[in-house]
Amino acid sequence: MDVQKKRILTGDRTTGRLHLGHYVGSLKSRVELQDEYDTFILLADIQALTTHFENPQLLYTSIFDVTIDNLSVGLDPHKVTIVQQSAVKAIAEMTVFYSMLVSVNALRHNPTIKTEAKQYGYSEMSYGFLGYPVSQAADITFCNAHLVPVGEDQLPHIELSRKIVRKFNEMYGTNIVEPQAKLSSVSRLAGLDGNAKMGKSLGNAIYLSDSAKEVEQKVRMAVTDPARVTIDIPGTPEICNVGKYHKIFTVDQCDDIWERCRTAKIGCVACKKILTNSLNTLLDPMRERRAYYESHRDEVKDIIVTGTKKASEIGDAQVATMREAMHLAI
Ligand code: TRP
Fold first, then answer.
1. How many CB atoms sit inside 10 A of residue 314's CB?
2. pLDDT tens profile 51-91
3. 240 lines ligand 1 (CB under 6 A)
């Protein structure tokens, strides 16, 4: 490993397979940056517990599914470190230390916490759920990560991590790295159903593991410009879900497609066919890599175990430094 390289840490909750929203929001940059940065990918199973503690089987399966999703997009297991969050004790210890520096009010007013609490129907939020941004600060800083590639919903959490680090360093004279968020150019992908966000729990996701046929069916069901009732009515691609997807997934031909939509020279069916094609062209190489890892599950497990061991050593050293600085080391 090149010690000169700066570090990336980012991750995903292990609550199911990853979808195109994860891809454009974070996975794509992970792949692009894996040579330049020493990259850590966290399988956030503790964070998954905050909402799915009653479903341990899903969490267990997802640890493998999320790893395979990450490998399928082209992350190289020889370059990146894949880490199981719950097995890194330093993260739990640091969460406790950090929790003293964060007010309950700051957590209650965190916009992402608010949105999620509503989404999950939490009238009575658990202590663990309310506190997950604190644990996320520990995720990011156990290895002194510099950069965190995430979607825009994660910005409040990165901001909190920075505040915690500043406070901790000031108070105890440590040198924990203050992390920076890296937003991708598409930091939020809308659902093809017109929902502002693609999400597993919203039932509108196109999964990286979907077959070509499934992608075709999902695109066929997409809601398009509602004013375009018949094919001879000109469309407004900028308000059309499929139009917006072309801008992301059919970059080369997008201007042309939009022009043909505006002048009623292409209908929604044909337009959707092009999108299906673009998505499947993107997903095909992922499907190939996935097939390999699906049939080499022992290798996948080894990748997780090796990465977690390495992360634990790094985390233990970080905690030792912190304990020393806090005058807890006797
Ligand atoms: N909160 C992130 C999500 O919901 C997952 C996550 C957990 C994460 N720990 C992290 C992301 C650390 C970046 C860095 O997708």
1. 18
2. 999 999 999 999 999 999 999 999 999 999 999 999 999 99
3. no
Ligand 1 proximity of 10 Cβ (cutoff 6 Å): yes
**Cα dihedral across residues 2, 64, 69, 47: positive or negative:** negative
Ligand 1, atom 3: closest residue by C-alpha: 12
Closest CA to 193 of 230, 222, 236, 232: 222
Q: Is the model's pLDDT at 1 over the cut of 60?
A: no
Alpha-carbon distance 37 to 33, whole Å? 6
Residues paired with 183 in a beta bridge: 150
**For ligand 1, is residue 136 a contact (CB within 6 Å)?**
yes
From the list 141, 150, 18, 31, the residue with the least C-alpha distance to 88 is 141
DSSP string, 139-174: HHHTTT-SEEEE-GGGHHHHHHHHHHHHHHHHHH--
Q: Ligand 1 pocket test: which of 27, 136, 180 has the largest number of ligand atoms within 8 Å of its C-beta?
A: 136
CB of 77 closer than 6 angstroms to any ligand 1 atom: no
Q: Residue 207: which of 15, 79, 58 has the closest Cα?
A: 15
Measured in Å, residue 12 CA sits from the centre of ligand 1 at: 5
pLDDT at 186: 84
Enumerate domains of the chain plus CATH numbers.
7-189+297-325 (3.40.50.620), 210-289 (1.10.240.10)
